[in-house]
Design brief:
With about 100 residues, the protein is of the alpha+beta class. It has a single domain, classed as RRM (RNA recognition motif) domain (Alpha-Beta Plaits), CATH 3.30.70. It is built from 3 helices and 6 strands. The strands form 2 sheets. The chain has a 4-stranded antiparallel β-sheet with strand order 1-2-6-3. The protein has a two-stranded antiparallel ribbon with strand order 4-5. A hairpin with a 2-residue loop joins strand 4 and strand 5. The radius of gyration is 17 Å and the shape is elongated. The N and C termini lie far apart (about 35 Å). The mean pLDDT is about 90.
């Protein structure tokens, strides 16, 4: 189960969503919503009301080196937006944003 959730995404947008009981995680690209829901409930001991997923396509990257142009591509990522039950929160994710206050 722990292999499904790779890491929490800590961005300004994700921190703003935490006030609405929504948290963002990077998950495996083959994980479905049911598996993501179970993994979050087991890992953080919370009740999940909904899960939304989005697949972020990789970007094309080009850089100039001594050998000439090198072309590459970043990997595909899958993000999960998890909404928790009223009155619950995830301390690991929400405590990171409160350090700047």
């Amino acid at each position: 189960m722990n292999q499904i959730i790779k890491k929490p995404i800590i961005t300004e947008k994700a921190m703003n969503l935490s006030s609405q009981r929504q948290y963002v995680f990077e998950v495996q690209d083959n994980a479905n919503k049911i598996e993501i829901k179970r993994a979050v409930q087991e890992m953080f001991d919370v009740d999940v009301t909904s899960v939304r997923t989005v697949r972020v396509k990789g970007k094309n990257k080009i850089r100039m080196t001594r050998r000439g142009l090198m072309r590459g591509k970043t990997a595909l990522k899958k993000k999960a937006y998890v909404t928790l039950k009223e009155g619950q929160q995830i301390e690991i994710v929400s405590s990171v944003g409160s350090d700047t206050e």
